[in-house]
Design goal:
Oligomer: single chain
Number of strands: 5
Distance between the termini: 30 Å
Strand content: 25-35%
Radius of gyration: 14 Å
Largest sheet: 5 strands, mixed
Order of helices and strands: EEEHEHE
Helix content: 10-25%
Shape: globular
Length: 99
């Protein structure tokens, strides 16, 4: 597995590329998607998924533009109640400790 983070200093925004054999996902993409496209291409990966971990009130996400350019499926939490096509999230994730 390959991971790379992307940081936008003025917004203190982090996004990530998680890649495997030939495909990758972008997590919480910023509006300017060109760097994701360039890194994925340089690594020989195709962007197949875009994951939004939460709704972003502090910046404009690039998920729609990235999906349009790559055909990637957008995945968001069920509670987001979005008004665009998304991929199904089969199970809600709970990262709270059970202790």
């Amino acid at each position: 597995m390959f991971t790379q983070s992307f940081f936008v200093p003025g917004l203190a925004h982090l996004s990530y590329l998680l890649g495997g054999k030939g495909t990758c996902a972008i997590i919480d993409p910023r509006r300017d998607i060109e760097e994701y496209l360039a890194v994925a291409k340089a690594m020989g990966m195709r962007i197949t998924h875009i994951l939004e971990t939460h709704l972003h009130a502090d910046f404009i996400s690039g998920h729609m533009d990235l999906a349009a350019r790559t055909g990637a499926e957008i995945i968001v939490p069920k509670q987001a109640n979005v008004h665009f096509h998304i991929g199904p999230l089969k199970k809600e994730m709970n990262f709270r400790s059970k202790t």
